[in-house]
Amino acid sequence: MKFIIYIFAVISAVTAQLTAPTRNYNVTSPVSNGPYVVGQILPCTYRLFSDVDSLALVLQIDLESSSVGTATAANTTTMPIAISADVSKTDAFVKREGNLTYYEHSINFSIPSSVKPGNYHVVFLDKSTNTKLPIPIEIRPAAVPTLTGTRTSSTGTPGQSQSPGSIFAQGGSSSNSPTAATLLSLIGVAFIAFLL
Predict the structure, then answer these.
(1) How far apart are the first and last CA of the chain?
(2) Which residues, 6+ apart, have CB-to-CB distance to 17 below 8 Å?
(3) Please, what is the Cα angle at 71 between 65 and 73, to 5 degrees?
């Protein structure tokens, strides 16, 4: 059973990588069609192989908007993530997986609040060959904190609700006794865990 989980994890890790058109680097992050949030980090991770010469590689990473229904350059907004990404092969970046040696670099780009939610591409551009590896992503709006009800003082009895009502109970009342269905589900989960 553990062997099957291990194989699945290895296959998932391999399929998550996107290979550049010139096959001189792989991109492991961002995830294709993955959701990212305004104000959060957009990780850009790429791997350079030890057997491929990266001296000629001039890598630029951009965030481009994807205009739905139009393909004109006037509707595309580009924001640089890295104008000249690091392609060095030093011991600080070396990684090994079995017999494979590669050099992994990562850039953590903070998505500015000025970016409008929508569909984008993270474009890895090899300036030396003018080849692009566009990775589609979705940028979602940041969560907006909402205040419901009235604020209460911070003094209170431990274990007692300080707000009027509860998000878990209808009408602000709650029951402290577990139901039979809850107990049955907990016993079922414990039994399944015991079997594994």
Answers:
(1) 10
(2) 26, 27, 28, 47
(3) 65
60 DSSP 8-state letter: E
- State the amino acid at position 137 in one-letter form: I
Which residues, at least 6 apart from 123, have a Cβ–Cβ distance to it below 8 Å?
Answer: 61, 62, 63, 64, 132, 133, 134, 135
Q: How far apart (Å, rounded) are the C-alpha atoms in residues 55 and 117?
A: 37
CA distance 49 to 99: 12
* β 131-140/34-37 pair status: parallel
What CA–CA distance (Å, rounded) separates 116 from 38?
8
Q: How far is CA 157 from the centre of its chain?
A: 40
Q: What is the pLDDT of residues 100-116, one digit of tens each?
A: 899 999 999 999 999 99
Measuring CA to CA, which residue among 56, 2, 1 is closest to residue 24? 56
Taking only the tens place, the pLDDT of each residue in 31-47 is: 999 999 999 999 999 99
With a cut of 80, say whether residue 158 has pLDDT above it: no
> Model's pTM, two decimal places?
0.64
